[in-house]
């Protein structure tokens, strides 16, 4: 188990998308986050107290979470230096980067010398089976996206919490580093050997008979050349009864690939439904989740209403406006969209 509370690492980051793990923890588990560590050239903040390592330890922090993401998930020299200083101050280290903490000699030596723990969140279980595609009881919803980092985890968590508030049994099934740190369990899907991706999802979302829902966090996009393989295996393993499509309307191109345009929402809906029908013939799209965090509220409300009218699906920014209309569609409840109502 990773000891809490956490100090969240921002380092030298200047791109908001690069600190999504730290931000996700600050948003969904604020009670276990005592502060943030950032250098003077970091232009970002989570609105938590800014602390150095000694101050964080004095405030009760147990673990520095390296809650950043970069291309390839590498440990840079600056990050290693910071992690060493954090251990000297008395903190354990947790990381979801692809490059393992325990594989870096300087960190492994310091941890052994100081009695600190190194937690590699992106370490899959050793007993993952190969997927078999056999129908299994239970109800499952999967979030999918037009691109990476468009709000699939936020949407899934918001849906899970809203179902629980309605008295419906619901479990968030984490498939990425941030979700695992929030939920305390899950599978780091992009670190699983390709042959076992669908089996990993079958394993973390097994048969259930309580009339509840598994809310499965999506990864990547069928339209992202770098990560479509992960997305496809996830779709097949999930055997989803329902999908919610997530989209960032202000993004100019696929993340990290300026030579690739974003797909249209309509074609992305059809592609995901077509892929999902391999293992779930009756799958349906029940809503669209827009990440409008970079838009003024009035503009965001208008876009949600426009998108809903165009595609005939409940549309909202789940974190900003809620997910009630999407849940009504999911559960078969007749209700007007609260976002559409705001524009009436």
From TrEMBL:
<dbReference type="Pfam" id="PF17396">
    <property type="entry name" value="DUF1611_N"/>
</dbReference>
<feature type="domain" description="D-glutamate N-acetyltransferase-like N-terminal">
    <location>
        <begin position="48"/>
        <end position="124"/>
    </location>
</feature>
<dbReference type="Pfam" id="PF07755">
    <property type="entry name" value="DUF1611"/>
</dbReference>
<dbReference type="InterPro" id="IPR035402">
    <property type="entry name" value="DgcN-like_N"/>
</dbReference>
<feature type="domain" description="D-glutamate N-acetyltransferase-like C-terminal">
    <location>
        <begin position="130"/>
        <end position="327"/>
    </location>
</feature>
<dbReference type="InterPro" id="IPR011669">
    <property type="entry name" value="DgcN-like"/>
</dbReference>
<dbReference type="InterPro" id="IPR035086">
    <property type="entry name" value="DgcN-like_C"/>
</dbReference>
<protein>
    <submittedName>
        <fullName>EBNA-1 nuclear protein</fullName>
    </submittedName>
</protein>
<dbReference type="InterPro" id="IPR027417">
    <property type="entry name" value="P-loop_NTPase"/>
</dbReference>
């Amino acid at each position: 188990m990773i000891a809490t509370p956490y100090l969240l690492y921002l380092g030298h980051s200047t791109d908001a998308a690069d600190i999504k793990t730290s931000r996700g923890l600050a948003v969904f588990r604020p009670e276990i986050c005592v502060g943030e560590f950032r250098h003077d050239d970091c232009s970002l903040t989570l609105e938590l107290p800014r602390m150095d390592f000694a101050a964080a330890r004095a405030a009760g922090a147990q673990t520095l979470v390296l809650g950043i993401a970069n291309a390839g998930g590498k440990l840079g020299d600056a990050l290693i230096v910071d992690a060493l200083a954090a251990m000297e101050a008395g903190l354990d280290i947790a990381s979801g980067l692809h490059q393992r903490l325990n594989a870096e000699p300087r960190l492994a030596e310091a941890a052994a010398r100081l009695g600190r723990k190194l937690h590699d969140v992106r370490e899959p279980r050793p007993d993952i089976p190969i997927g078999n595609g056999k129908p299994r009881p239970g109800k499952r919803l999967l979030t999918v996206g037009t691109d990476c980092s468009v709000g699939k985890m936020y949407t899934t968590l918001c849906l899970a919490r809203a179902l629980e508030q309605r008295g419906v049994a619901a479990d968030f099934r984490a498939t990425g580093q941030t979700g695992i740190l929030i939920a305390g369990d899950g599978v780091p899907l992009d670190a699983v050997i390709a042959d076992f991706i669908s089996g990993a999802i079958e394993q973390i979302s097994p048969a259930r008979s309580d009339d509840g829902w598994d809310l499965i966090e999506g990864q990547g996009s069928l339209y992202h050349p770098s990560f479509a393989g992960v997305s496809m295996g996830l779709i097949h393993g999930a055997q989803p009864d329902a999908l919610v499509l997530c989209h960032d309307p202000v993004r100019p191109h696929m993340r990290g690939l300026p030579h690739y345009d974003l797909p249209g929402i309509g074609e992305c809906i059809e592609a995901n439904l077509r892929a999902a029908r391999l293992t779930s013939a009756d799958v349906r799209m029940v809503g669209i989740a827009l990440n409008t965090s970079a838009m003024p509220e009035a503009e965001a409300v208008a876009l949600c209403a426009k998108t809903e009218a165009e595609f005939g699906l409940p549309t909202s920014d789940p974190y900003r406006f809620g997910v009630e209309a999407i849940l009504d569609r999911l559960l078969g409840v007749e209700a007007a969209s609260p976002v559409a109502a705001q524009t009436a």
